[in-house]
């Protein structure tokens, strides 16, 4: 069992402290586009990072292999690649494997090998678990048992590219100018511990769910205790890891919608719940009492994506910045409005979502400001919309 | 000097003794020394009327108030009420010759037993200077990377739900379809611990019940039943089913928000209870459903629970009797294998586990048990919470920690160690007036708390007592909010089980491991 904690948290802090810039851009028609505006937006927020971690999640980049799980795996040496490939061949049908193309980039050093594998689980015997769970379990197994290997992303028709450097350096290194995607999310990191590790950069990803996160969860210990009780193993000691596990538990495994996810991690205040209709009160009371340990308390803003949607959310009292905007078919999320204005000076709508109010953009439907801008007496009203 | 005394004293039924009555009854040194400043004493006889232990008496020949220090229990009632501050009660400066092994307490107890041949009784909680681990834990606060929150300007939430929680919820069309196990909402994570009517007076239990109503929390009947007058507080009552089954009937069970099966008590793990017949007044007898004046004896075990599967049967018998409307709690004393026992209790179907540490109070217990049996609540709580988490069943039960919670700081530390809420008993009684003289078992409580003597019991005005209890819990709740805000969180559930908010100071590695906290500075 290798020690990811030592790698990502060399001083054994309770958790790794970090702050960040986040950005997301989606074409709601599902058409792919170049990441050039995303890179410019991130350069514009350079002050929010310190070059110790950056990354991108790209959706729609592998249409020719869209029925295969695309595993992006980092290796610190060749031996561990062989071990990992042996493991993959026993468990999966590997359709294709290749090194992720890179180019020499000034300022990037200590880079690991990064490979991608397009795989499908082999038919299993009596120990049947569904394909998604099998991929998750295999990824966690590689991460915790195979020394030097780390699964960066594992979804279909998507991939995560991340490492140590500023966002534009990471984009340059992984030749992201060669890709086109219909959702791009991006992250730049400001960790307060001095060392940085490629696997510890954002986005964090389980299957096609990716998370970029700007936050410092004051409730980390309680969140971690809750998730570990359910069986998740927190190995990286970061807020984003617990946020990713919460996404996996609530939205993938328990299949609750993003609007409910928001009400779990950033719930309305009791005084708001007390004013709701009986049905809503019953629902929110149950959410808070069942999932109290997943209340992400303290400052965060987060952009979550999967193949069908891009979601933005801030903490319940909105202690971290987030701006949402739309222009034509495009949806933008950013830590700073200036970055959105830089790439799209004209906007149809631009707004600041209220704390705890999710902005959900789906392929085929853009969000409207009213859904998330007002926190009227209602957390009630948006919930009624969930009902429809 | 020898002017005739005011005749009014004849109207007062205070004990009159002559100096010649004074005799050495024992070769035990007095525990306390009563010192009277005769320059200040105005012979008003308040002290005589206040002391149920007959320490003070009027000596007619000398026209002086005198006292018998060896009967003094150190409750300070006379000193507090003396209008001229003439009285000072202090530990007796005269002591046996100092000895590192044979303390004065040992010598006195041996003498007492040599005189009586009985068990040395005591009340309240363990008073020995054993380590208090709350005092060796320090709480975290936010600086720079995550902001602290100001509870005077921002909402700060303490609402807590007691009861089992499912693994997840299902929602259809915006409506909850999961049927939730019974939940009890409380507005602050502080509950009043089990204290029976019988052990305490009617007025004090009334004050606890009314304070619970005002605070939005719960009081606990203890094992003494629920007085007919108190059914109006049913929405705030936890009712106990203990080994004596006193006062247990269908209406009683259905009057409760939570039914608690009492297996053990922190002050006296492994043994039962004994309410002396003297304390079984007519009113207590109605409540307990036993004849007045008879001893109320609670057996050590519940005689229908000799195993975990028996406990399961009682848990479900109660659930059947209450139509699955109320959570069932099981209260155990903190003992060495508490973690395994708690795991079994969850599997037996309990919705709440209350763990009572060895510093918890009692109305009466053998001193040798109180001072030698059990476990600190800090260790028991930490190991139970860890075990239930390791087994993935922590959400199926609410954990209530009690037994030595003395301040809001202790509450915050208990919740960070894994408690959902805490029980306070001793702290509540101190708020009402208790000075921890430890004579609860005598029924002669001068503060009117642990007594059924109407003359003494009326000393507690239930309205004032209610107000003092409400003030205490409100004050603690404000302090908890301040500490939460300091940690940068605005809801109590974000503290629950968050042991990284704690650091241990002056603890061994083994102690830190049991508590699951890192050392200070780490």
Provide the structure class of chain A.
alpha+beta
CATH class membership of chain A: Alpha Beta
The overall pLDDT of chain B, averaged over residues, is 93
Count of helical regions of chain B: 15
The fraction of residues assigned to DSSP E strands of chain A is: 25-35%
Portion in beta strands of chain B: 15-25%
CATH fold-level assignment of the largest domain in chain B? TIM Barrel
What is the quaternary state of this protein? Answer: heterodimer
Helix percentage range of chain B: 25-40%
CATH architecture of chain A: 4-Layer Sandwich
State the strand order across the main sheet of chain B: 11-21-20-18-17-14-13-12
Q: Which parts of chain A are unreliable, with pLDDT below 50 for 5 consecutive residues or more?
A: 375-388
- Annotated CATH homologous superfamily of chain A: Aminohydrolase, N-terminal nucleophile (Ntn) domain
Number of helices of chain A: 13
> How confident overall, as mean pLDDT of chain A?
88
Net shape of chain B: globular
Summarize the structure in words.
The complex is a heterodimer of chains A (388) and B (522). Chain A is an alpha+beta fold and 388 residues long. Chain A has a single domain (4-387), classed as Aminohydrolase, N-terminal nucleophile (Ntn) domain (Glutamine Phosphoribosylpyrophosphate, subunit 1, domain 1, 4-Layer Sandwich), CATH 3.60.20.10. Helix content of chain A is 31%, strand content 27%. Chain A has 13 helices and 18 strands. A seven-stranded antiparallel β-sheet of chain A has the order 8-3-10-1-16-15-17, with helices on one face. Chain A has a five-stranded antiparallel β-sheet with strand order 11-12-13-14-18, covered by helices on one side. In chain A, a hairpin with a 2-residue loop joins strand 11 and strand 12 (209-215). In chain A, helix 6 (220-230) crosses helix 7. Chain A is globular. Chain A starts with a helix and ends with a helix. Mean pLDDT of chain A is 88; it is low at 375-388. With 522 residues, chain B is an alpha/beta fold. Chain B folds into two domains: 26-94, Alpha-Beta Plaits; 135-519, TIM Barrel, CATH 3.20.20. Helices cover 28% and strands 16% of the residues of chain B. Chain B contains 15 helices and 23 strands. An eight-stranded parallel β-sheet of chain B has the order 11-21-20-18-17-14-13-12. A three-stranded mixed β-sheet of chain B has the order 6-22-23, with helices on one face. In chain B, strand 17 (328-333), helix 8 and strand 18 (352-356) form a beta-alpha-beta unit.
């Amino acid at each position: 069992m290798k020690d990811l904690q030592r790698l990502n948290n060399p001083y054994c802090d309770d958790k790794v402290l970090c702050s960040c810039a986040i950005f997301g851009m989606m074409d709601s028609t599902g058409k792919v586009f170049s990441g050039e505006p995303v890179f410019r937006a991130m350069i514009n927020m350079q002050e929010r990072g310190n070059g110790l971690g950056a990354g991108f999640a790209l959706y729609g980049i592998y249409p020719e292999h869209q029925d295969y799980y695309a595993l992006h795996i980092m290796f610190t040496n060749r031996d561990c690649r062989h071990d990992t490939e042996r493991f993959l061949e026993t468990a999966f049908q590997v359709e294709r494997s290749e090194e992720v193309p890179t180019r020499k980039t000034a300022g990037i050093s200590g880079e690991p090998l990064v490979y991608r594998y397009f795989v499908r689980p082999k038919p299993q015997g009596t120990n049947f678990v569904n394909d998604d769970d099998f991929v998750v379990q295999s990824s966690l197994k590689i991460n915790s048992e195979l020394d030097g290997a780390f699964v960066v992303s594992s979804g279909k028709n998507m991939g995560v590219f991340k490492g140590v450097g500023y966002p534009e350096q990471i984009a340059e290194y992984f030749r992201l100018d060669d890709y086109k995607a219909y959702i791009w999310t991006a992250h730049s990191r400001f960790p307060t511990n001095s060392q940085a590790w490629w696997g510890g950069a954002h986005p964090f990803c389980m299957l096609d769910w990716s998370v970029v996160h700007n936050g410092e969860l004051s409730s980390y210990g309680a969140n971690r205790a809750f998730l570990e009780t359910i069986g998740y193993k927190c190995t990286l000691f970061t807020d984003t890891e617990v946020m990713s596990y919460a996404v996996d538990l609530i939205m993938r495994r328990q299949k609750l919608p993003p609007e409910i996810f928001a009400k779990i991690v950033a719930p309305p205040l009791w005084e708001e719940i007390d004013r709701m209709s009986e049905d809503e009160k019953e629902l929110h009371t149950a959410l808070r009492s069942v999932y109290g340990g997943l209340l992400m308390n303290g400052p965060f803003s987060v952009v979550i994506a999967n193949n069908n949607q891009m979601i933005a959310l801030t903490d319940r009292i909105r202690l971290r910045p987030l701006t949402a905007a739309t222009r034509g078919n495009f949806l933008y999320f950013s830590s700073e409005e200036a970055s959105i204005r830089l790439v799209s000076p004209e906007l149809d709508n631009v707004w600041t979502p209220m704390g705890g109010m999710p902005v959900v953009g789906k392929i085929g439907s853009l969000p409207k400001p009213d859904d998330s801008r007002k926190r009227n007496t209602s957390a009630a009203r948006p919930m009624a919309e969930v009902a429809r | 000097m020898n002017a005739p005394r005011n005749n009014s004293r004849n109207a007062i039924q205070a004990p009159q003794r002559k100096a010649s009555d004074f005799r050495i009854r024992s070769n035990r040194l007095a525990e306390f020394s009563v010192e009277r400043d005769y320059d200040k004493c105005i012979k008003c006889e308040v002290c005589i009327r206040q002391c149920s232990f007959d320490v003070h008496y009027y000596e007619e020949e000398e026209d002086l108030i005198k006292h018998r220090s060896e009967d003094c229990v150190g409750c300070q009632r006379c000193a507090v009420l003396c209008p001229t501050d003439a009285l000072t009660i202090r530990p007796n400066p005269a002591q046996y010759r100092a000895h590192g092994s044979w303390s004065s307490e040992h010598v006195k107890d041996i003498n007492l037993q040599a005189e009586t041949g009985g068990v040395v009784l005591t009340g309240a909680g363990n008073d020995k200077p054993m380590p208090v681990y709350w005092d060796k834990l320090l709480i975290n606060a936010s600086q720079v990377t995550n902001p602290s929150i100001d509870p005077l300007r921002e909402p700060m939430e303490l609402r807590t739900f007691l009861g089992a929680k499912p693994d997840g919820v299902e929602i259809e069309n915006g409506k909850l379809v999961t049927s939730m196990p019974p939940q009890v909402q409380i507005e602050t994570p502080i509950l009043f611990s089990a204290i029976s009517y019988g052990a305490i007076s009617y007025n004090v239990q009334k004050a606890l019940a009314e304070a619970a109503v005002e605070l939005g929390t719960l009081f606990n009947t203890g094992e003494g039943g629920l007085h007919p007058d108190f059914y109006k507080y049913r929405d705030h009552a936890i009712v106990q089913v203990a080994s004596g089954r006193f006062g247990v009937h269908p209406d009683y069970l259905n009057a409760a928000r939570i039914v608690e099966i009492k297996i053990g008590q922190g002050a006296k793990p492994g043994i039962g209870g004994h309410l002396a017949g003297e304390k079984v007044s007519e009113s207590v007898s109605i409540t307990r459903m036993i004849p007045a004046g008879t001893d109320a004896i609670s057996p050590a075990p519940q005689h229908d629970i000799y195993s975990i599967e028996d406990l399961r049967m009682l848990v479900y018998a109660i659930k059947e009797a209450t139509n699955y409307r109320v959570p069932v709690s099981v209260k155990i004393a903190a003992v060495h294998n508490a973690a395994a026992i708690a795991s079994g209790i969850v599997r037996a179907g309990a919705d709440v586990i209350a763990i009572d540490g060895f510093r918890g109070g009692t109305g009466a217990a053998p001193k040798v048990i109180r001072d030698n049996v059990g476990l600190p609540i800090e260790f028991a709580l930490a190991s139970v919470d860890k075990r239930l988490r390791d087994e993935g069943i922590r959400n199926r039960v609410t954990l209530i920690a009690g037994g030595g919670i003395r301040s809001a700081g202790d509450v915050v530390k208990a919740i960070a160690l894994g408690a959902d809420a805490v029980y306070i008993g001793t702290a509540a009684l101190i708020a009402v007036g208790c000075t921890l003289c430890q004579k609860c078992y005598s029924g002669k409580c001068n503060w009117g708390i642990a007594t059924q003597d109407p003359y003494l019991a009326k000393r507690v005005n239930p309205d004032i007592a209610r107000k003092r209890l409400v003030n205490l819990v409100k004050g603690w709740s404000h302090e908890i909010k301040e500490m939460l805000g300091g940690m940068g969180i605005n809801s109590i559930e974000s503290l629950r089980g968050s042991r990284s908010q704690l650091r241990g100071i002056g603890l061994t590695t083994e102690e830190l491991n049991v508590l699951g906290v890192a050392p200070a500075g780490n």
